């Protein structure tokens, strides 16, 4: 049996995932609000036949703007703009279930799916920052549990809305003047704990039926949600052993939900730092780390750990008395990953900042294109990944290097497509278009009515 | 003094504003979800050097899909897609203050303003349908007054957010590693009746500062809101006298708010039905009216009037016992316009449907290009309009006819631009970029602190 083909997503972020990337001579420090920059990146990724590009998001201004490019264009409108300048590549945006209404968000993703010809994906997040809560009428961050409960109901409503038009509801019959068949429109009729949504979506069912559903939380609730609903999972994993454990756990959980584990794709993040020689790659990595302003980075780390910046000595290890993950209401799994990384490798705060500055908890891998390709195939062949979330340290140059130097190696080895074979994002990932259950449900209800009446 | 130049907006809607336009041989009945259709329309409008294109919107599925093309792509993502395939023309989308959160919506418009290079406009609506309320956790439509109160506060918050970055906040200084000046970021710090929004927007101030603010309600509250805030006003006016009265009223109200009346542009809707001869134009209009399915149209009219469809006899006038406008919580001014039109011209329900099917209350004008140009100039020269909201009965053909036949006449008469002279939507409309008051406010606060301390 030939090995499974890999799936590759490009995680786009202004000048790159290394927080000091904007300081390199090649970088445009103002790129974060320039759509031309993102259009260029998406076109580079499409040249490499990647499955998709992806944008992270949170509805708040993150930290001090002194440190690094801050602020960003809202990702759903960015996807719409990119759909117009690309033809094949999938387009995934992050959006929060805690700070949106299902009708609005389901509609935007259905619209993007239409205008991209079936290339939309939604990275479902519950948004774990107090800053965001305070932009949406709240004084406190809703608990982790409350956010995930709302997310469950949100997604249920969104699916009802995406399925509220039968695929055959539109007739367009000019002769009779009958544009559509109202009997094949199914109002959401949802009345739940968090939401009441009565009507049908005002967007016909989209090319993919539902956008691709992506998830990136690795906490207990996050894994449960991913196993129940996600079709692609982005995850931060530092070692092969951890990645294998996560992969096996998620596939097992998906099976326990009655799902085909092959339809839940696990994509660990990797921050490739590429050079034509190992020395060149290490030099680029070192240059980037030198450009980090340590004091700013310490403030950010302190925020993640929930301690005051003064409690972190740059040249000492992390304090011993940090809180357990169970007490963290924010990004639980990221918290644990960072603390475990620091403890395992006995890193000073300064060293930890270097590691995080590169990939914010994701695995940084410096090397030649051959070495990066080996690292990717190694995890895929050892039960740790169905593909990768590529997070170039510097963009566009790092994405170009990956596409032009690493992708051809994966193609030569028969592990990556040389042409797009499908037209939708679901087809790129080998996932089916969801059936619409509503017509059958409506028929069954009608039949039950007739039977009850005939008794 | 040469007469003022006109402003022209193209109101885009699937196959055209006549509800039966989709039944014409030339029309694609599936165009409403095709972005290529809207890209074509926007490019036609841009070829005619129009100020802007515009999309109406409501977050609910409107009526029975049997009657005419239903469902539509969400307009903010449509604007983003159109920004990528046009260069000059302004892009205006409708969005509801009742069913959005200020942080999310302010952010999307700021993002579209960035990615279009300063071409975004927001048509502010409060959304007057029960169907929409029932998609957003409500059992009843909020009252007209409550919706406008929320809109006032919504807009105040949105402006705080658009102004939360000083124009000079970004430094991008690679040498020192200082990307921005956090002192020039001003959190919204809004705590009001409907909203609490603490933070700054996570989008830097956009090319236009604020998107162009558009309004289209003509009720008492709608006019007050427009006079206080709007920079362009779309309105439905059937006769010159009514249009003059509305124009004068709005300018007077704007002045009473201390605003320059010249910076509140009034654009009545006009539905041009063009033919090379008058007879040709009338034949097209008659053909369209023949294609209306009267029973469907009656249902829709009944909904607007708040009566049961059976109460409307197709071949009789409207019932005498309709409610006064004051009891209507929905679209007040549209209700009155329709009732007055029917009573004034003693129209049967069937005749009224023909008039509404063409323009839904807007003025239909059939004629040659010369006649349409005359009609436009006539209102502009007689204190009834600063420009027009062009609503072609059939699209693309009616928009093409307007751009290729009417626009050149207006250009020859020196009443319309022959090239774009500005780059932003505000520049097209001759409106200034709003200043950002926050830096001065922050300085004044600091000075007061120093003075208090020195006493």
From TrEMBL, chains A, B:
The keyword Flavoprotein applies. CDD domains: Nitrilotriacetate_monoxgenase (cd01095). Keywords: Flavoprotein, FMN, Monooxygenase, Oxidoreductase. Residues 31-384 form the Luciferase-like domain. FMN binds at residues 57, 94, 144, 148, 218-219. GO terms for molecular function: monooxygenase activity; oxidoreductase activity, acting on paired donors, with incorporation or reduction of molecular oxygen. The keyword Flavoprotein applies. Pfam families: Bac_luciferase (PF00296). Gene3D superfamilies: Luciferase-like domain. InterPro entries: Diverse_substr_monoxygenases, Luciferase-like_dom, Luciferase-like_sf, NTA_MOA. NCBIfam families: FMN_nitrolo (TIGR03860). Belongs to the NtaA/SnaA/DszA monooxygenase family. This is FMN-dependent oxidoreductase (Nitrilotriacetate monooxygenase family). It comes from Glycomyces lechevalierae. The lineage of its organism: Bacteria, Bacillati, Actinomycetota, Actinomycetes, Glycomycetales.
């Amino acid at each position: 049996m030939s090995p499974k083909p890999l799936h590759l997503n490009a995680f786009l972020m202004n000048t790159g995932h290394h927080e000091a990337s904007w300081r390199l001579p090649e970088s445009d420090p103002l790129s974060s609000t320039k759509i031309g920059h993102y259009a260029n990146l998406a076109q580079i990724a499409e040249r490499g036949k990647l499955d998709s590009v992806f944008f992270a998001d949170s509805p708040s201004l993150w930290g001090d703007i002194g440190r690094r490019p801050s602020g960003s264009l809202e990702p759903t409108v960015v996807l719409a703009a990119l759909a117009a300048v690309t033809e094949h590549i999938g387009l995934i945006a992050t959006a929060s279930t805690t700070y949106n209404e299902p009708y609005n968000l389901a509609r935007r993703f259905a619209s993007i799916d239409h205008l991209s010809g079936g290339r939309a994906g939604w990275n479902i997040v519950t948004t774990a920052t107090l800053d965001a809560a305070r932009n949406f009428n709240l004084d406190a961050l809703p608990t982790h549990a409350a956010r995930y409960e709302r997310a469950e109901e949100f997604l249920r409503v969104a699916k009802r809305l995406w399925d509220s038009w039968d695929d055959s509801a539109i007739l367009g019959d000019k002769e009779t003047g009958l544009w559509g068949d109202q009997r094949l429109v199914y109002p959401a009729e949802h009345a739940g704990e968090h939401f009441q949504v009565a009507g049908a979506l005002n967007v016909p069912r989209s090319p993919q039926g539902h956008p691709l559903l992506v998830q990136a939380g690795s906490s207990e609730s996050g894994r449960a949600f991913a196993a129940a609903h996600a079709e692609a999972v982005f995850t931060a994993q530092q070692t092969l052993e951890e990645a294998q454990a996560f992969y096996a756990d998620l596939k097992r959980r998906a099976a326990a939900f009655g799902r085909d584990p092959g339809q839940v794709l696990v994509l660990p993040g990797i921050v490739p730092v590429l050079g034509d020689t190992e020395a060149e790659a290490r030099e680029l990595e070192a240059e980037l780390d030198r450009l980090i302003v340590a004091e700013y980075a310490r403030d950010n780390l302190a925020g993640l750990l929930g301690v005051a910046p003064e409690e972190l000595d740059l040249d000492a290890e992390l304090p011993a008395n940090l809180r357990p993950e169970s007490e963290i209401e924010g990004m639980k799994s990221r918290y644990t990953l960072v603390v475990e990384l620091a403890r395992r490798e006995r890193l000073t705060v300064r060293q930890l900042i270097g590691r995080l500055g590169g990939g914010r908890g994701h695995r940084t891998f410096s090397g030649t294109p051959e070495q990066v390709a080996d690292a990717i195939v190694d995890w895929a062949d050892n039960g740790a990944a169905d593909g990768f979330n590529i997070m170039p340290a510097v963009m566009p140059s790092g994405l170009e290097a990956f596409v032009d130097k690493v992708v051809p190696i994966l193609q030569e080895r028969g592990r990556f497509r040389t042409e797009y074979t499908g037209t939708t994002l679901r087809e790129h990932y080998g996932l089916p278009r969801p059936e619409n259950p509503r017509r059958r449900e409506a028929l069954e209800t009608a039949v039950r009515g007739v039977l009850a009446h005939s008794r």
